[in-house]
UniProtKB/TrEMBL annotation:
Low complexity: bias regions: 41-66
Keywords: Copper, Metal-binding, Signal
Matches recorded under NCBIfam families: barrel_OmpL47 (NF047446)
Region called Disordered, residue ranges: 35-66
Cleavable signal peptide: 1-28
Protein name (record): Ig-like protein group 3
Length: 638
């Protein structure tokens, strides 16, 4: 059974750097890793240790081997983006540098990877690179790898769970100045011609070639399907007959032009024509595995005569009698067919009949429907629906048309990979599995997702506090005060050991056990504090929610943030800092100066505030998205 393991990398932990590069298939770009790899790691070419601090410390011969083009990626303490990345490059040998160190802004020991995508359609897949770096590892978080880039677009990402937004593209173009254009070849036929265009007695073929870049290296020709020979002088054809001369040219850079042909008919200078024409037939169309033509077959006839010339071509389909041939004969009736054909020249000579026998079958109905994909998750669950220790995800795909070709899955944004066996997830935390299937006609299903939570998995002890949030609901007056009563609801979730209990304190510092939503009816301003504890004993920092009941004149936020726009942790969202109706501005509700347990908890809080303000009409949908994006860009809770 296939087991997919996710690695949780604790902040500040010393992690050995690993570059795991599977053996490249034939034609794949070579990758050479420079850095001290731990025992058991592998690369696709020889490994050359180097200093973890500077490529200038390498031996002179190693520096000489380094590629002239150097591309550098850096990472910091952020899990949403790399600190710096290249966007363009030119094709050829390249040194890739990946640094995740204190010097690049990572002062908390956060691990990151630089992983090149080798499976997503539409991207180059010829560089298999996967570098894991940590500021406290043996290389101080700095690594180099030698690769060969080809024209096109590469996709890269951080493969560590929880870092799904660290992704980008590198566009590679041809190196400037390289000659990639083949020469242009022309042919000229000279000689005396009759009324039908045939050459009387002989014909002379002259070939010329031009190349505006590296110059012409050679010209070659092949006569009547023979081997190519060098062209050194004009080719003289002086025997009656029909000739096909194929020609091509090669430049100094090695570019060879596509073959071109010229046909020449030579007739005798005098004498009576007693030779019948030569007629050939060719059947074309799509063939199935049994050699039958699918849907229809085209019968193409051609005739040549070196003497008096072709007068007519005729065909007979399945014994119906000869008819004049003017265009390819289309045969689309299912079954076996025989086409007989002949040609007559101007002197009246008739060729021996030729024939072709073939079978036509009906074309299958085109498959335009993608496969149907379903999932089944199994495992022991607790009272909250979380899976204890592990969960097994089975993906099933069906296609009634051409049949299922491939099934793929993506675990926590790491990139799609082929699905071959049930997927076992046994790392504590929340996970998202995306899946899709492709049929044999190339139809791809819409991606589906399944979310699950693992508790008590094979991870280190749970040291992460739960995430808690609170909201107040009820009818409000024009000043935002809740009329008669306000309903308070507190929620908490924990991806590790699970939530044990929730507590709250209303208008004092005495915390009580929260068992469910409750109403606050006392008029006036209120301050609700709340917190959650998980089964491992981790406690959230206390959150505070302020509101008022049935007192229209009460200012719920007497000390208010009245800046013109909503500024979140130094990020100016540009959204007007409007009064929400009870004396509190939008910035007051965002509460960027509060004590937040994590950045994720703060973003979740701002999302709830923005959703409510949009529903109330205080902001529009665009301003809602702007507020949420500003919270994500901020460093609140980090």
């Amino acid at each position: 059974m296939f087991r997919q393991k996710l690695s949780r990398l604790l902040a500040g932990a010393a992690v050995s750097a690993l570059v795991a590069l599977p053996l490249a298939p034939a034609g794949a770009a070579a990758v050479e890793y420079r850095g001290d790899a731990p025992a058991g790691s592998s690369t696709t070419s020889s490994t050359t240790p180097s200093s973890p601090t500077s490529s200038a410390d390498q031996a002179p011969e190693a520096a000489a081997e380094a590629a002239e083009q150097v591309l550098t990626w850096t990472a910091s303490a952020s899990v949403t983006e790399y600190a710096s990345t290249p966007t363009t490059a030119t094709a050829g040998a390249t040194t890739i540098v990946f640094e995740n160190s204190a010097a690049t802004g990572n002062n908390i020991g956060m691990s990151h990877t630089l992983t090149f995508d080798t499976s997503t359609p539409g991207y180059n897949h010829d560089v298999d690179l996967d570098i894991l770096a940590n500021p406290f590892d043996d290389n101080a978080g700095r690594y180099e790898a030698e690769v060969v880039l080809t024209p096109g677009t590469y996709r890269y990402f951080c493969a560590i769970p929880g870092h799904p937004d660290m992704v980008g593209e590198l566009v590679v173009t041809e190196a400037p100045g390289e000659d990639t254009t083949a020469p242009v070849v022309t042919s000229q036929v000279t000689g005396q011609q009759d009324a039908d265009g045939a050459y009387i007695g002989s014909a002379t073929v002259n070939l010329t070639a031009e190349d505006d870049s590296s110059g012409v290296e050679s010209i070659e020709y092949a006569l009547d399907g023979g081997e190519y020979v060098p062209y050194t002088e004009a080719v003289v054809l002086d025997e009656p007959g029909t000739y096909t001369l194929e020609h091509r040219a090669t430049d100094v850079a090695g570019n060879t032009s596509a073959p071109e042909t010229v046909q020449v008919v030579v007739v005798a200078a005098d004498g009576e024509d007693t030779t019948a024409p030569t007629v050939t037939g060719e059947v074309t169309g799509e063939l199935d595995d049994n050699g039958a033509y699918v849907g229809s077959a085209n019968v193409n006839l051609a005739a040549v005569d070196a003497g008096s010339g072709v007068a007519s071509v005729e065909y007979d389909l399945d014994g119906a009698g000869y008819a004049a041939y003017t265009d390819p004969v289309v045969v689309d009736a299912p079954g076996e067919h025989t086409v007989t054909y002949r040609a007559t020249d101007v002197a009246g000579n008739v060729s021996e009949p030729g024939s072709a026998t073939f079978t036509v079958v009906e074309a299958p109905v085109e498959d335009t429907a993608p496969p149907t994909v379903t999932t089944e998750v199994t495992g022991e669950q607790d009272a909250d629906g979380a899976y204890i220790a592990s969960a097994t995800v089975q993906i099933l795909a069906e296609d009634a048309g051409s049949g299922v070709a491939t099934v793929e899955y993506d675990l926590d944004g790491a990139g799609y990979t082929p699905y071959t066996d049930p997927l076992v997830v046994d790392i504590t935390g929340s996970h998202t599995v995306s899946y899709r299937a492709t049929d044999n006609d190339g139809n791809v299903s819409e991606p589906g997702t399944v979310e699950l939570v693992i508790v008590g998995g094979g991870d280190p002890p749970d040291t992460t506090a739960p995430i808690a949030s609170a909201q107040v609901e009820g009818d409000q007056d024009e000043d935002g005060a809740y009329i008669d009563s306000a309903t308070v609801t507190i929620n908490a979730r924990d991806g590790g050991s699970g939530v044990a209990f929730i507590e709250y304190a209303l208008d004092d510092f005495i915390f009580r056990s929260y068992t469910g939503s409750f109403d606050v009816t006392d008029p006036g301003a209120h301050a609700l504090q709340y917190r959650a504890t998980d089964n491992a004993g981790n406690v959230t920092w206390t959150g505070t929610l302020r509101f008022s009941v049935s007192r229209a004149a009460t200012d719920a936020c007497p000390v208010s943030d009245e800046r013109p726009t909503v500024i979140i942790g130094g990020v100016d969202s540009g959204v007007a800092n409007a009064d929400t109706g009870n004396g509190c501005t939008i910035a007051d509700l965002v509460d960027a100066d509060g004590l937040w347990v994590s950045h994720k908890a703060f973003v979740s809080h701002v999302t709830q505030i923005a959703d409510r303000l949009e529903a109330e009409g205080t902001i529009d949908a665009k301003e809602r998205r702007t507020l949420i994006n500003a919270s994500r860009k901020s460093d609140i809770g980090k």
